[in-house]
Amino acid sequence: MANLASRFILLASISACLTTLTLSLNxxxxxxxxxRPSAAERTFSxxxxxxxxxxxxxxxxxxxxxxxxxxxxxxxxxxxxxxGVSHVLEHLMFKxxxxxPDGEFSKLISQxxxxxxxxxxxxxxxxxxxxxxxxxxxxxxxxxxxxxxxxMPDEAFAKEIEVVKEExxxxxxxKPNSVAYERFMAAAYLSSGYHNPVIGWMHDLDNMNARDARxxxxxxxxxxxAILVVVGDVxxxxxxxxxxxxxxxxxxxxxxxxPLNREVAGKGxxxxxxxxxxxxxxxxxxxxxxxxxxxxxxxxxxxxxxxxGVLDGGYSARIETDMVRNQGIAASAGAGYGGFSLGxxxxxxxxxxxxxxxxxQLEAAFNEQIEKLQTELADPEELExxxxxxxxxxxxxxxxxxxxxxxxxRMEAIGRSWQEADxxxxxxxxxxxxxxxxxxxxYLVTDNRTVAVLNxxxx
Amino acid sequence: MSEQSxxxxxxxxxxxxxxxxxxxxxxxxxxSVKPGDGGEPGPIVTPMQSPPLKExxxxxxxxxxxxxxxxxAKPYKVHIDAWNTPNGAKVLFVQASEIPMLDVRVVFDxxxxxxxxxxxxxxxxxxxxxxxAGIADVDAIARHFEGLGANLxxxxxxxxxxxxxxxxxxxxxxxxxxxxxxDVVAQPTFPESSLDRLRQQxxxxxxxxxxxxxxxxxxxxxxxxxxDLPYGIPPNGTEASLTRITSDDLRRFHQxxxxxANMVIAMIGDxxxxxxxxxxxxxxxxxxxGQAAPKLASAQPLQQAQQEHVEFPSSQTHILVGSIGxxxxxxxxxxxxVGNEVLGAGGFSSRLNQIIRQDNGxxxxxxxxxxxxxxxxxxxxxxxxxxxxxxxALTLLNDTLQSFVETGPTEEELEAAKRHILGSFxxxxxxxxxxxxxxxxxxxYDLPLDYLDTYIGNIEKVDIKAIKKxxxxxxxxxxxxxxxxxxxxxxxxxxxxxxx
Lengths: 459, 500
Hints:
Shape of chain A: globular
Mean pLDDT of chain B: 88
Number of domains of chain B: 2
Radius of gyration of chain B: 24 Å
Number of helices of chain B: 19
Number of strands of chain A: 11
Helix content of chain A: 40-55%
Helix content of chain B: 40-55%
Shape of chain B: globular
CATH topology of the largest domain in chain A: Cytochrome Bc1 Complex, Chain A, domain 1
Strand order of the largest sheet of chain A: 1-2-6-3-5-4
CATH class of the largest domain in chain B: Alpha Beta
Number of strands of chain B: 13
Radius of gyration of chain A: 24 Å
Low-confidence stretches of chain B: 1-39, 41-55, 490-500
Number of helices of chain A: 17
Distance between the termini of chain A: 50 Å
Oligomer: heterodimer
Largest sheet of chain A: 6 strands, mixed
Structural class of chain A: alpha+beta
Structural class of chain B: alpha+beta
Largest interface: A-B, 135 and 130 residues
CATH topology of the largest domain in chain B: Cytochrome Bc1 Complex, Chain A, domain 1
């Protein structure tokens, strides 16, 4: 309890200058960073003759690196009856090649001190290794080998599909929120590939065979549909040389047409109820909105991003302050916008009503927030807080080579440039309260809305 | 980005599920399911330096291995500064000026193990720190940190209560962020309105637990294994205790455990030693000296096998098999680490994964863990499988464990495990986040300051004999505690009937 008096004084002086501090954050950050080579200045890209793109960010803080191969294919590329095949293929990519038999890939990475994994999402599939920087050649040789030479025998498929079904049970079927979310997505996306879950519907998994996966592999896995991202204690020219050596000889293929993943115009609200054994009622609301690839005016994307920040950019933002703390209607609530996708996307809300409140009251409170955004201009101070977090977030992100690589890969995989992520701060900073209001009026309207309610049944 | 900047409340279990479902779901292959509960933060230590290079006796056709052999591993060392504050708090500091930011983490011996007869007290106290401090109310605190672009987090585990701040290191953001951080740690006001709200959220969390077979299995595991010992206390409380806890209880808990003599300060970032000393001194000044928390009672191993089943209408059964494990600082720790790598920690190279997932397709995720804590933490193996395969999976699990404890790893497995652990060691300290985890762990568990420097040597020393001896002492396959949560005897549901 010492020093109480002195802290009073300090605190008062701090709040007095708080506004100026946040306003000056932008410039100060730029000055601070100019002393060191910026992330962009340490990032290099190159395209091989066969069309494979390589992006390297040098980060010499520790003698480690992450190496990722991204394929521009994911669940949103799948057609009816084949849902989940991108993810099944991802599993089968570990089942060996002629040069590296089944089990050998993981064994080699492990023995060279690496950790490895893979991921499948709506718009992309990725494979990565995190290792000592000196082991990069191994990582690149193995990935180049399995880009074209994976065997995927029927027997391996038969076992692995059971693993995938266990994964579906674990992650979706036995989790009420995941079941509700899956159905919410299916209702909110009518005409794009985002309608189906990444892991696929169970009956499609039951019906799948090894040939389906092999065909999918032949169709999409080729150097001109892939991106290599390396971040860490490496030198860009050396990475380019390694890539040329191992990926270079792989012939260019013919990349099929990508899905547009466009949504048809909303013609009225959609409402669904998910009645499953559970304990907690949960509300999901989504508005169909454009993403970075589908917006007629890019400004809308950044305005929606700022709008999400005003609503849910932290504990001081509106949803936490008004709905959770002051009104006490929500036990938990959130909003967000996934603007960086291949096609159209959602602006979403979700929440759990507080004790004594109903789902209807929670929904009304969300609507009240939206109305307020449509009728009143956001306070510049709120926007400054959102920006401050975005700016510092970019600094903090540099602590992790993996999250840097993820950001680069994600942007490139949806057909954008990694540089756009860096330019985002400027674009977001330029967004005005009027533009935020306009975005709320244009997009957060009933016609675009899907509402799903998890309606708990006895367990 | 906004997810990263969230302030602490989102870490409450009630919030996390609802929010996280919107994070684009990624389906990871080895699906590293961690022991979601009971594990103290602090990296599960694994590996430094490139391992002895593999001979190409296996006839590998890879040409890159030669390139790797030619490369020289760079020396890499984390330099830790350590000292004590006048009131006895331990300080660990690493200067890292590559990124203009600073992490400050204070760790108190004030986790759920100190709840006494009020389960949930430690977690509520920790969550309430950001709800009012000094003259600032919850809105002012949130606006202050978020306006500065700073991240504030409070977390509570079984052993530790942690408050962490990440801020830009430029003094114009750092100083005001730190000033408020000191208040949050030392002068929380525990306002009634917030207490009621957080209490409701935790009660909701208990409801949420009831719809999760995994959470129910884990809860039954800790309760059954530790009974009335401190680690048997459910950190998220019980309905009875949560309803009973008052703001006076929080104050009393805070006054007793959030004290200098019970604190470790871990820092890494773009500041120098003098600045680090100033920060530590400020924290030290604002807290009473107090006393270190007393040692926790030891847990005794089970005398015979025990089983518990939680009936739940899920499609999978969650299986946990385990026993009382070891404390942090156990003399056999390195032998257990290498052995466990072979048994079930080493991802796709482990025996459990090979047998249960790869050979039989029975589970997506199967792992074995030692969770070393202040008192004896658990040893456990966990997996999830379709209900009707439960017996088959359990038999394979138990056979694998028994044979491993009896015969230990093969020479080849031992070498492979050591190579992985040693080779991946640089990854364990590659970011400020990793390092501050280590600093907190080394300080809290009184590990030697050269823990990281001696790690390599300690792993290299491990041989088969040491592993057999260590497992023989700690793990008794005939006296394991088995928890299952799922449907025990059910008609096979539609999707389980499908075959290829």
